[in-house]
User: What shape does this take?
Amino acid sequence: MQKSLAIFLGIMLSLPLSGCLKPEDNRVVVEDNSVFNFDRDIPMTTWYHYGGTLSSPSPIDATNQTALDNANLTVDLVGNNAPFFVNATYYGTGYDTFEPTIGITASGAIFFTSWNGLGDGTHIIRSRDQGQTWEDVGPFGTIDEDSGQTPNSNDPYIYVDKFTDRLVKFDMHALASMFVEYSDDDGDSWSIPYPVEGYYVTQDHQSIASMPHPDAIVGEVVYVYCINTGSPAAGPQCSRSHTGGQTWDVQRIGYPFGTPQCSGLHGHVAGGSDQTIYRGNPSCDGPAVYRSLDGGYTWTEHTITTEVQMQQGWHSHEVAVAVDEGGNVHATWISLDQMPWYAYSLDQGGTWSEPMMVAAPSVSETGFPTIFAGDAGRVVVGYIGEVNDCETSNTTNESGCGWGGYMAIMTDAFTENPLITSVAVNLPNDPLDITSDCGNVRCGGFGDFIDVEIDDQGRPWIALAHNAAGYEEAVIGTLMEGPSLYGDLTNLEILPEGGPSTLLIG
Assistant: This one.
């Protein structure tokens, strides 16, 4: 009797358990719902990762739980730090470029520098359909009978004043003189060329920025431009305009008087809505940002870190700087190991976060850092990167070697462990350049630098050159899909796929 009861009880107790395991139960089995399980595969040119640190510089794959466990990394992928499905591409323009810069107005029009060689100066090309088609908008005003505009532009440069929506075209001639031209109607017409005061020769690597400032006499902003002298003794020189760019102060030193300078080279300047202007440049101690609170008249020096020193050689000057809508400062530079590092400041450059290595996994060498910021904590870092060198790896373009255009995007840079979404805008078998050590030497249409910007919809755009075919065609990279870096953190409108089929030169 007891034996029979025990058997009966055993059968009854086993029924609920066995019922859960039967396949014919038709219950829905809920799998691990990873935040990276999108409705499609992650593209081969997209990576989700965390930045490298001083103690461990390699990036950490955010989609690999084992890698996270090994790094003892606690992450919180919610709110602004949540991942988005991201895919990138590039579009050809049909025009050449050198040291490409871009600007984007409130209308969404994109402007890109096109270098036409000595005697024809710099032309500006424009796209009004998000990079799909391009047209030459000059300027075509006559300054001599041959060129049609300011002649012999060594360094083309375009800047969009985000406070007034003015286009500023800035040309350097014979490494000795500067001219600026303006457009207030999206490039349909341009001002005459205005000469910019200067005394130091050789001048190079000019850069211009604006900021709202009460010292403005004409308009609401003060313009500041700075140039490299190539001389540690002279250092960078800067000039300002209170008259909307029509007249300029005599050049002054762009660093604190009496402060030793170890490099005369600098990155592009950036202005904030809080009347600040910043210039990236190495101090004698490491990568640094120089700040002006009086419209570029006087400067203070702020070393970012002494622990991650800068790339040596020709491009050791490249400290790129940006200011977000909250007035926070963001900076990036290439280190001794040829990798891009990033840091931010919440107090106008007074103190800085611990630097973070932001390159995509598998990238082995980088160059030409650039940066732009949107709303507070949203930032894009641009650079060119190489996984395999075409010469030393004995590989060919078709098998995946050479240089690509990269963007590292953070939607919450201030969180403890910000998620970095990195993209390459070109496929491995479609390199932009195949020169060894391209990021540390001049190569093709890249020249000395590239550029990145965010349009008013929050979409990042990176200015590049496609040199591999020998034509140095201006190409612009962007996100086909991804998060907006302005306004609500939502998905951007989907753009069509680009790539080599959009190249028009050759």
